[in-house]
């Protein structure tokens, strides 16, 4: 069976194959898929259609599923992502991964060339010129031709094991080409990077998912390659170029860097097509060749498919390299000549719409990364649709970026480009990019009304719902909320109450005890008071006081939910904008669905008591000391105030009750000396829950 040239995609029924026949077909498929991977990802010269390739790949997956004994760590199918690792292990490199000494001025390059010629005693030196990639440097180790481990550069001597993620890159051969005469052991160095279009697409997806975009392609590549779960890396637009052999056993040493690059290609390890020899045989001097190469790449920089920030000049002769040696962290036989910082003018690649945590839709410009005041900028706010129209910026335009101090970068203006054919004018979407709900317009802004149900608003709404003045769910931080949403544990507020302890324990930085504490805190919040619950819903324009006014006016959640806009506006201090926001919130079907799910999850919103109902504790003064089991201090205080009582922070002659919790302070001694009635939490709960009869006293 040969799946390299014009592969046959008519296969026998798996049930008719013996294990031996399956093994032959599996090996042939793997060899064929590796061949076509190499043509597509390394040579950029595919010979079969995507549909044919997919058919071969699916057949291999089916065979490995039907015959588990035939599975292999170097099968092309592992690229779809294996199981997550628990942590990134430390890996000691076989040889130091040195950094490069960098120069920005030509005189430094002239001095470097003079130093090398003096050491060699020659008038001219052969160099190998390469682009200086703005990516992530990695080491890969092959044993008997098969990929064994891959790691980040780290500090140059010790990196982190990212083998599981490197295997998802199709340009990384899991088995080297040329099965004959392969070295028993080999370590190579490469650079992982993102293509420009891939970076733009990745940031578009992150913004639309209300995630922070990557600052630049290098950060994106580094962040992806350090993921614990390779399934989050598989399919991402990551690429790699190889440029150095760190160690090889056995094998005759290669005499030059040019030979090294050719050998890497023979093994199926892709090298950069922009590499160029700088030879003494050229009638121009080597320095002139270096200048010309740098100028050519600087001119091409914005048109290249990947980011570069300079060129690298390497002595080609390996024996001369050994004579020149290395410094503490950089070789004496190589030098980087960096490009000057770009002007604050760049290309606006595309305009995406970000849905903020309050539902406001904001157009965001995704840019070709540019250095502005020492910060790499790849995105800039466009504020609103009116701003985009006023500045008349479109995809593909050259734009000027401004950034003062720590101010968020923004597009100041469009820069004219004669002869440039402009794209279509930007228009805001009619439907929310995150949830598809019809967008509403409010003045200069566009907003998604599906507040509780919109995925882009989830994290912000969860954090607000759990905040101190809302349900006061301690330990439910923004980072925890992000994990809950990212791992799809929480789709809306109701899912919080369905979380299990083991779900929380699986989150980063959570142990068994902290998971149990957060779980208890969430469950204890199932009976929130109406005003706190209203505030926690994050309704536009509804702050703490407004929530209290609405709760006191309508008494129950159901009454408020069914109230007309006019009746809401009739509440003192409630204006038309607040009334409209509240009415629209409860009228939105998706919000009502979430409220129903909250009720089904066991949330019982407690009504606000009328003045008549509150009189049993009217004017009675409470002080608290120690830690309560069922209430936060603010919850207990609000419950007292809702019943007409008052809460003070210190004991006085007017104090009626001291509520004593665990680990009380000196207030207990002061209360006993003053003859103040002391009650424990159980008595306090009876007092505020069923007030008929005097409270039971305790002896703390």
CA(first)-CA(last) distance: 85 Å
Count of the separate structural domains: 5
Give the uncertain stretches in residue-range form: 690-700
CATH homologous superfamily classification of the largest domain: DNA ligase/mRNA capping enzyme
Main sheet record:
7 strands, antiparallel
* Average pLDDT reading: 85
**Beta-strand content bin:** 15-25%
Q: What is the level 1 CATH name of the largest domain? A: Alpha Beta
Number of DSSP strands?
Answer: 22
- Rounded to an integer in angstroms, the radius of gyration calculated over CA atoms is 33 Å
- Assign a percent range to the helix content: 25-40%
CATH architecture of the largest domain: 2-Layer Sandwich
* Continuous helix count: 24
Shape: elongated
Structural class by SSE content:
alpha+beta
The CATH topology of the largest domain: D-amino Acid Aminotransferase, Chain A, domain 1
Give a structural overview:
The chain has 700 residues and is α+β, with helices and mostly antiparallel strands. The chain is built from 24 helices and 22 strands. Strands 12, 13, 14, 15, 16, 17 and 18 form a seven-stranded antiparallel beta sheet that branches. Helix 22 links the parallel strand 19 and strand 20. Helix 1 packs antiparallel against helix 2 and helix 15 packs across helix 16. It is elongated and about 100 Å long. The chain starts with 18 loop residues before the first helix and ends in an 11-residue tail after the last helix.
Using brief descriptors, characterize the structure shown:
700 residues, alpha+beta, Helix Hairpins, D-amino Acid Aminotransferase, Chain A, domain 1, OB fold (Dihydrolipoamide Acetyltransferase, E2P), 5 domains, seven-stranded antiparallel beta sheet, five-stranded mixed beta sheet, 22 strands
